[in-house]
TrEMBL record:
It comes from the Bacteria. Residues 200-283 form the Transposase IS116/IS110/IS902 C-terminal domain. GO terms for molecular function: DNA binding; transposase activity. GO terms for biological process: DNA transposition. This is IS110 family transposase.
Length: 333
């Protein structure tokens, strides 16, 4: 416990609890601030500096600098699940909630770590770069859609010619930026044989185009050891049920716990798959015949597409309609 450093990460600051001298401090959430902390810990722990374990919640971009620093300095970390930490804090009876208190509680959470969870974090630069470019593409694409909507509303009102011309120019710039980002993503994929094979295999599934194949490829390389159930959960498509006694019986819904990028990029592909691929069409129609709502049936098709894509990626195979038709017994329908 004395070697467990609790770190509560926010956008600008990191609250730190140092158990060797029971000190609570705040540092800047930047490489400079993290280096200052490491220097301080080096003076306090001296020869046992290599025995330290940093305990913190992974918070996406806010925790990336710390994670990368730990990777470079070979510092062991326990990156605790936020829900797990919340439950642990409640179990301790901790009602007050400040960043410094959270850091102190985090330093005690080492007992929750399972085998293999205390380790030096691994940073895959390709995964991170793809993640940033995909997010940038989505941001740019969303901006293009907003500009188009604004243009259409002005044209309908027969509005300002200046605004119409200016918006048309802005839309062209935004669309060109989309193509530029997409080109950079493809360059990364084309530079690695394994990525290129995986991308091409995924894209053979009816309904999955360039963007869908890219986001699924990113999902699979980000979580290389995930099984099919975990992949569905990471995409936020796992069904959850809320029932309690006889009074609470809510409809089963998808968790939406994973990134919405995956779901958003595949929805139109689902409609295409249902229309042009017998395997997905029969599966969809069977669910509808069994009373499933249209949206629920479409989500089920999306899950099926992701599972097939994951299998193709793992086994380096292309989608074979006839194979899946026989495997699922659809050839008899």
């Amino acid at each position: 416990m004395i070697n467990c450093i609790g770190l509560d990460i926010s956008k600008k600051l990191i609250a730190v609890h140092i158990p060797i001298n029971k000190t609570n401090i705040e540092i800047e959430n930047s490489l400079k601030g993290i280096k200052v902390l490491y220097s301080k810990l080096n003076k306090l722990y001296k020869k046992s500096i290599n025995d330290l374990v940093y305990i913190f919640e992974p918070t996406g971009n806010y925790s990336f600098t710390l994670t990368k620093f730990c990777n470079e300095k070979n510092i062991k970390c326990f990156m605790i699940n936020p829900k797990q930490f919340s439950n642990f804090s409640k179990a301790l009876g901790q009602r007050n909630k400040t960043d410094l208190i959270d850091a102190q509680v985090l330093s005690q959470a080492i007992h929750l770590a399972k085998e293999g969870e205390i380790k030096v974090p691994y940073i895959d630069t390709i995964v991170e770069e793809l993640k940033e470019l995909i997010s940038y593409y989505k941001f740019t694409s969303k901006n293009t859609s907003k500009l188009i909507s604004q243009l259409e509303s002005i044209i309908v009102k027969n509005g300002s010619k200046y605004m119409i011309n200016d918006l048309k120019k802005s839309i062209k710039v935004s669309k060109d930026k989309e193509l530029e980002i997409l080109s950079k993503i493809k360059n990364i994929i084309n530079s690695d044989d394994k990525l290129l094979r995986g991308y091409n295999n995924i894209k053979t599934i009816t309904g999955i185009g360039e963007i869908g194949a890219i986001v699924l490829l990113h999902l699979f390389i980000k979580y290389p050891d995930a099984n099919q159930r975990q992949i569905i959960s990471l995409a936020g498509l796992n069904p959850i049920e809320k029932t309690s006694g006889t009074s609470i019986h809510k409809k089963t819904k998808i968790s939406k716990a994973g990134s919405k990028v995956y779901r958003g990029s595949l929805f139109l592909g689902v409609l295409t798959a249902i229309r042009f691929d017998d395997n997905f069409r029969i599966f969809f129609e069977r669910l509808k015949a069994n009373g499933k709502h249209t949206t629920a049936a479409q989500i089920a098709v999306m899950r099926k597409m992701i599972i097939i894509a994951h299998s193709l990626y793992k086994n380096n195979k292309q989608y074979d309609k006839e194979f899946y038709k026989k495997a699922c017994g659809y050839d008899k329908e």
